[in-house]
Design brief:
Keywords: DNA-binding, Transcription, Transcription regulation. With 308 residues, the protein is α+β, with helices and mostly antiparallel strands. Helices cover 42% and strands 19% of the residues.
Length: 308
C-alpha cells in the first residue's frame, strides 16, 4: 500500500460520535481540548471557528473541517458575543435561542482510532484540514458531502450505517485532498507526499520496510544528493529518514502484537529484523517493555509507550 493507506489501515478509523448541531441568534461556545479527532460538516448557514492559537476561520454551508487532534476551540456566529464553556456530548446540540427555526445547522462529531499507534500516526498529519464548499463543489468530495446531507434529511432504514460509512469516506478523502498546500503545512506525512521526490522515497520504504535502506539509497530513488535528501526529508517529516523508518516498523509491529495472530519470528521478519531476538531488543529499547509483555497487556500497554 501507499504511505497514506498504510496509516489509515493502522488507525482503523470509525465514527465514534455523530450528532446534529444547530443554533439561532447570537451565540458563542468554547470547548476545551479533548483526546479525539473531530469533524464538522456545515449543512446550513455559517459561523466562525477559532482554534486556541489561530485566527478565526469563516465556515459556510458545505464546508468541511477535520481536526486530527482536537485542541481547545471556540465557535461563534459573530465576534464580541459572550462565550459559554460547553462539554462534548453525543446528544444533539442547540446553541443560542432555543426556540424557532435554526439559522445554523451542522453535523459534528469525532472519530475513534486504534489507540496503540494513534499518537505516532496523528503526529504525521496536519493540525487542521479545511475544505471550503467552493473548492469541493463539483468534485468527488463535494458529491460525498451532498450524499451525506441528503441522507441526514431522510429517515430511511439503515440511515445510521450509511452515515457512518460516509463519514469514514470523508475522512480519507479529506486526508488526500488535492488542494492541501505544502506552504504553511506543518511537518508531517501529507507535507512530504506533496514533494514528488520525497514521495518516491516514502513509497519505496512503505512498499518494502524489510529492506536495508540507507540514506544514500533513498537519495538515489528521490533523485537528490545524500545531503539534500537528508535535509529535505527532516524538514518535511520532522525526523530523519532512517528514524522515520524505525518508527514505522515499530508501529507495524505494535499493531501485529495487538492483533495476536502472528508469531514473534514472523513479525520480526516482516519489519526487517534478522531474528526475533534482534527485534525484541529494538522493541524494548523504543517501547520500554518486551514485545511479549506488550502483547499480554494489550491496549493497557499503550499507556507505557513513548509518543514517537
Amino acid at each position: 500500500m501507499d504511505p497514506l493507506s498504510d496509516i489509515i489501515a493502522l488507525l482503523r478509523p470509525t465514527a465514534a460520535i455523530s450528532k446534529p448541531i444547530s443554533a439561532r441568534g447570537n451565540w458563542c461556545v468554547s470547548y476545551r481540548a479533548y483526546d479525539a479527532p473531530g469533524f464538522t460538516i456545515v449543512l446550513a448557514g455559517g459561523c466562525w471557528l477559532k482554534l486556541a492559537d489561530g485566527e478565526p476561520i469563516r465556515l459556510s454551508q458545505g464546508d468541511f473541517i477535520l481536526l486530527p487532534t482536537t485542541p481547545a476551540f471556540t465557535l461563534f456566529n459573530k465576534p464580541g458575543v459572550p462565550c459559554i464553556p460547553v462539554e462534548p456530548t453525543a446528544a444533539p446540540v442547540r446553541h443560542g435561542e432555543m426556540e424557532g427555526e435554526p439559522d445554523y445547522a451542522a453535523l459534528g462529531g469525532s472519530f475513534r482510532f486504534e489507540r496503540v499507534n494513534a499518537p505516532l500516526l496523528l503526529s504525521l498529519l496536519p493540525g487542521m484540514i479545511h475544505i471550503p464548499a467552493s473548492e469541493g463543489r463539483g468534485t468527488r468530495f463535494g458529491h460525498i458531502i451532498a450524499l451525506f446531507a441528503e441522507e441526514c434529511a431522510t429517515d430511511y432504514p439503515g440511515r445510521e450505517a450509511i452515515l457512518q460509512r460516509l463519514i469514514e469516506l470523508l475522512l480519507i478523502e479529506a486526508l488526500r485532498w488535492r488542494s492541501l498546500k505544502r506552504e504553511g503545512m506543518s511537518a508531517g506525512l501529507l507535507h512530504a507526499l506533496r514533494d514528488p521526490a520525497l514521495a518516491r522515497a516514502l513509497r519505496a520504504m512503505h512498499a518494502d520496510m524489510r529492506a536495508r535502506w540507507t540514506i544514500a539509497g533513498l537519495a538515489r530513488i528521490a533523485g537528490m544528493s545524500r545531503s539534500t535528501f537528508a535535509a529535505r526529508f527532516a524538514e518535511a517529516l520532522g525526523c530523519g529518514a532512517i528514524e522515520y523508518l524505525a518508527r514505522w516498523r515499530m508501529a507495524f509491529a505494535r499493531d501485529a502484537l495487538m492483533r495476536g495472530d502472528k508469531s514473534l519470528d514472523r513479525i520480526a521478519d516482516e519489519v526487517g529484523y534478522e531474528s526475533a531476538s534482534a527485534f525484541s531488543t529494538a522493541f524494548r529499547k523504543r517501547s520500554g517493555m518486551a514485545p511479549g509483555r506488550f502483547a499480554r497487556l494489550g491496549v493497557e500497554g499503550e499507556a507505557a509507550l513513548p509518543r514517537n
